[in-house]
TrEMBL record:
<keyword id="KW-0963">Cytoplasm</keyword>
<dbReference type="GO" id="GO:0000922">
    <property type="term" value="C:spindle pole"/>
</dbReference>
<dbReference type="GO" id="GO:0051011">
    <property type="term" value="F:microtubule minus-end binding"/>
</dbReference>
<protein>
    <recommendedName>
        <fullName>Spindle pole body component</fullName>
    </recommendedName>
</protein>
<keyword id="KW-0206">Cytoskeleton</keyword>
<dbReference type="GO" id="GO:0000930">
    <property type="term" value="C:gamma-tubulin complex"/>
</dbReference>
<dbReference type="InterPro" id="IPR040457">
    <property type="entry name" value="GCP_C"/>
</dbReference>
<dbReference type="GO" id="GO:0007020">
    <property type="term" value="P:microtubule nucleation"/>
</dbReference>
<dbReference type="Pfam" id="PF04130">
    <property type="entry name" value="GCP_C_terminal"/>
</dbReference>
<comment type="similarity">
    <text>Belongs to the TUBGCP family.</text>
</comment>
<dbReference type="GO" id="GO:0051225">
    <property type="term" value="P:spindle assembly"/>
</dbReference>
<dbReference type="InterPro" id="IPR007259">
    <property type="entry name" value="GCP"/>
</dbReference>
<dbReference type="GO" id="GO:0005874">
    <property type="term" value="C:microtubule"/>
</dbReference>
<feature type="domain" description="Gamma tubulin complex component C-terminal">
    <location>
        <begin position="4"/>
        <end position="156"/>
    </location>
</feature>
<dbReference type="GO" id="GO:0031122">
    <property type="term" value="P:cytoplasmic microtubule organization"/>
</dbReference>
<dbReference type="GO" id="GO:0043015">
    <property type="term" value="F:gamma-tubulin binding"/>
</dbReference>
<dbReference type="InterPro" id="IPR042241">
    <property type="entry name" value="GCP_C_sf"/>
</dbReference>
Length: 175
């Protein structure tokens, strides 16, 4: 359970790493720079107008993908920490106060851990769901590594669309 929670936290921190820098960069971009970037992108990779119009700047597609990943990771963390851990620990505290000896406390703790494992969908019956959640977390970590490389290539004037397409395909397979 702890490893799963740490994986969620790691993915959340990785996705939130460049948030403030990206917000400042978006605010500084003027409309003419966005249009120029869009035209250059269409010329370079032969992108059709409909997808260029849909996403605007090439950087926007990356930001949208990151927003989707952040949404999933944040909701997963919120669900586990509030609905599962929060309510479960309150119930366990009440039961511990009623217990009279150490053996009862031990059995209560084992029952609490078993309930947590089941509710976090980490038991054998929900292996498919747990694997899918781990794939999304891995995708978030891979994205947090590839996004800075993409930003650096944008600054150099050369875009690496292969990594972005690979990340999108991975997200489509998971969802």
């Amino acid at each position: 359970i702890l490893i799963f929670l740490m994986q969620i936290k790691r993915a959340k921190i990785a996705l939130n790493a460049d948030t403030h820098a990206d917000k400042n960069a978006i605010v500084k971009d003027s409309e003419s720079e966005w249009e120029m970037e869009e035209l250059q992108t269409r010329d370079r990779i032969g992108q059709d107008a409909s997808s260029a119009e849909r996403y605007g700047s090439p950087n926007t597609k990356y930001l949208l993908l990151r927003a989707e990943l952040r949404h999933v990771v944040n909701n997963l963390e919120n669900y586990i920490m509030t609905q599962i851990h929060g309510s479960g620990s309150v119930m366990m505290e009440k039961e511990i106060r009623k217990s009279t000896n150490l053996d009862q406390i031990h059995s209560l703790h084992l029952r609490f851990l078993s309930r947590m494992r089941d509710r976090c969908l980490l038991h054998e019956r929900a292996a498919v769901v747990a694997d899918t959640a781990r794939k999304v977390l891995d995708l978030a970590l891979n994205f947090s590594v590839s996004y800075p490389r993409y930003k650096a290539s944008l600054q150099k004037g050369e875009e690496d669309w292969a990594e972005m397409r690979e990340a999108e395909e991975s997200l489509d397979r998971v969802s």
